[in-house]
Amino acid sequence: MSSSTSKAIDPSSVELWDHSHHHHDVLSTRTFGFWLYMLSDAMIFALLFAAWGVLSYSHSFAGGPIPADFVKPGYAFLQTLALFGSVLAYGFTMVALKNGNKAGVISGLWGALILGAAFLALDINDVVHLLDAGITPQRSGGLSAFFILTQTHALHILFGLLWMLVMLVQVSRFGFTTEVVGRMLTLRLFWHFQAVIWVFVFVFVYLRGMLI
Amino acid sequence: MSHDNPLQHPEVQVASGRGYLLTFLVSTLLMGVALFLVTSHSVAPFGLMLALSLCAGLAVIVQIYFLMHMDLSEAQIWNTFALVLTIPLFILAIGLTAWMFQELYQRTMVMLPGMPGMLH
Q: What is the pTM assigned to this prediction?
């Protein structure tokens, strides 16, 4: 310390800025930024769950169909299997990525895509049957809250599937560049977080719906 | 901290097939248990809601740890920190809304049929 302070500083030659090239940790920064986005996205779900919480009393259904009449927990459990399976497939995709296994990443993405599409197909089939039976969002406040919560989750799944299609193209075309790996990491956060949200949707909408 | 090979980055290297498989098995099992509790009608409503919440809570904790890799390691601690600071916001948003509306319903809709059967 004493040696550095005793040295005379020449103002004409002093270096004010550090011009040396620093690598930013792009992947950590992006992953953290995307995680903050996921948490704010989760706030949307928190508000939808709050709305469902206050609009799932028996009087919230305005004398119309109540969840106990129309929710099918066994069917929703099939959706659970499809989504958890898709999340597992994406997990194995990340293991293949760790090992630099391109064929493994491609097949893992296909697995996650197909199982995710199965989840979405089950959801759409369920919604179509409900609407056919006159169980529509405009029937009562309780039904509005039910549809907006479950379908906001389904919309997330749709965007995750589109993102997987994009990644299938990018991985096969560009390989494991920093950009592509960064997108695989943020998609991992996005996709795995949908499983966390689904646990709450399954338990507090489909299963609790049986008790309303 | 430079990584010439993006695959060597800790965010990539944290992947664990065993952890993901464990998460799948445990959370599927817990959801199966929750499904069984509801369909078998073997538990009274209040105890049932408690048991369901327990299943959901356990499944989410397993997923947060093994799937989202939230822990106190150098690579993950800020993600965990952000999550821990956001959880109170979830609790306030849902809890206060539920409490306010329950009070409101009790004060304004006492005569409404179906209210005594409320499960909240």
A: 0.88
